[in-house]
Specification:
It contains six helices and ten strands; from the N terminus they run αβββαβαββαβαβββα. It is globular. The strands form two sheets. It has a five-stranded mixed barrel with strand order 3-4-7-10-8. The protein has a two-stranded antiparallel ribbon with strand order 5-6. The chain is an alpha+beta fold. Helix 1 packs antiparallel against helix 6. A hairpin with a 2-residue loop joins strand 2 and strand 3.
């Protein structure tokens, strides 16, 4: 009887784990979004000298261009520490911690993001839909792929915790940055408008503050852990059951 119950618990745990992992990154409806996400990013030109900073043993020169303040919904993410990301390693780019693809404004108001599919590459945010109507309703000037830079370990950890569906707010400076580590020349710029697309259209931001206004994916993110614990417990319970032998008469 106990073995039967444990068997069903294993099946249920696996089912719940699969469903939870699938659902945890589904984007929230507009009704769950904070009204501040309707605001456009704020960009202010500044005059600031370039400065140097070191991260991961590499010294970078950072040239700030504009103060930048953005509130939005994360629709896709790329972690620069991903095992398959070879470009950051090859270019010794330790300053770019994470890339966040974010929507705001009209796309939040209309919920147009809900009908599109989003994905991130090593330096790109891709989006599209099989529906021409859905794509036409999407405002391509209210989305940006943000290369987020920091030399602070605490800030890096916060940004790396961000998941698809989170509502975020960050402040920083749109910046160019470069290095000449071990004789290799590396330089990266930034977009300074929201109307451009393609190569060079991403915003490169040296982050000064970062806040997760509201986490998405609830309760599914919590259920991932619940399902995982249930699965481990049921498997352990199964193997702890005494072995039963069937006696046969000959």
């Amino acid at each position: 009887m106990i073995r039967t119950a444990l068997r069903w618990l294993v099946f249920f745990s696996v089912w719940l784990l699969v469903i939870s992992i699938w659902r945890r990154d589904i984007l929230p409806p507009t009704s769950e979004l904070n009204s501040v996400l309707l605001n456009e990013p704020v960009q202010t030109e500044i005059t600031q000298k370039a400065f140097q900073t070191t991260r991961g043993g590499v010294t970078y020169t950072v040239q700030p261009l504009y103060d930048y303040d953005l509130v939005g919904l994360v629709v896709s993410k790329h972690d620069a520490n991903a095992w398959w990301d070879y470009l950051h390693r090859e270019w010794n780019d330790n300053l770019n911690v994470v890339d966040l693809c974010v929507v705001w404004g009209k796309n939040v108001k209309t919920g147009a993001y809900g009908d599109l599919n989003f994905s991130s590459g090593q330096f790109t945010c891709n989006y599209g839909s099989n529906s021409m109507e859905a794509f036409a309703a999407f405002d391509e000037t209210a989305i940006s792929n943000n290369h987020l830079l920091t030399d602070q370990t605490k800030l890096a950890k916060i940004m790396q915790k961000v998941r698809v569906g989170d509502q975020i707010h960050f402040r920083g400076r749109l910046s160019e940055y470069s290095h000449r580590h071990k004789g290799m020349a590396f330089k990266r710029g930034t977009s300074i408008v929201r109307t451009d697309t393609g190569n060079g259209a991403c915003e490169t931001v040296f982050v000064e503050s970062f806040e997760i206004i509201k986490s998405g994916g609830q309760p599914w993110r919590s259920l991932v852990w619940v399902a995982a614990i249930m699965l481990v417990a049921s498997i352990v319970g199964w193997f702890m059951q005494p072995v039963r032998f069937n006696d046969r008469m000959h």
